[in-house]
């Protein structure tokens, strides 16, 4: 009897928990449940019911979780497969020239340094650290030049070029996406191959300094090269009245002065390091093709529209040069495409003239042209 009294509360609890009902044996006058019924009939039935409900609930949860887990595995497998194709690892810093819209994606441990130009970094979570200052930066920030950045743990960051050109260094895991933007870097490579562009003594970015504003002396040197007269200029031993010309540029300036190509900004100053504007540089380009502002073909301040009317510039190029800050990148652009423009006297193109003067050969010209695959600005 004591055993029955112990079991009954437990049985009643189970009944309340699982809502199980049964038909008790006996009659209205004798409603007691026998111990044999509980142990031999009811408890086995209750146990089977409980086990069935637990199994059903478990199967439902397992099935839902299994589907979600399978979907996640497939999603991340696809991402890993993509990374396996596109990503790479740089064990030490790699330096490269990039163009507007180019994007480098880095993950935990990727290092990045901007040497020239402008780059923005974005990330949806985690952190990017400016190691040079020991501070975190916000997503969307523009990077400071010559400072080292590190992608922190559990972070994927995208470094996107926002200037026409830039010079960057990176190390660690990365993937690189190239834009379809104007490739000023390729044009600089092409002109260098032809001996028309050599850059300066800057220790990075091939010395091209495409992110800098051009100076008057740089414009003059490009003009002399496009005339095909660099050898004559380098061997010229005469002088000029200008007092602000460094020794490395003196032969160019003195030669140009002797030929009447320049009068300087005053009787004693050439204005070596003053910046040259787009209309001023286009004036030199037009002169190299036989047009003359001195004889009234055009004036320096109308050189862009005149070049457009003569087919040297597209409407998009004219608008860009008229509204945008003029950098060495644009010097390279204008110089490269001027090679295909017709000379004033109709004798051919500027490229053909330079080949005829043995400045470079046809094979070099073909190799240079192959370097530039981007389209002109329409």
From TrEMBL:
Stretch forming the signal peptide: 1-23
Domain (SLH) ranges: 236-299
PROSITE patterns attached to this UniProt entry: SLH
Entry-linked InterPro entries: SLH_dom
Keyword Signal appears in the UniProt entry: yes
Taxonomic superkingdom: Bacteria
Name this polypeptide is given: S-layer homology domain-containing protein
Organism encoding this protein: Papillibacter cinnamivorans DSM 12816
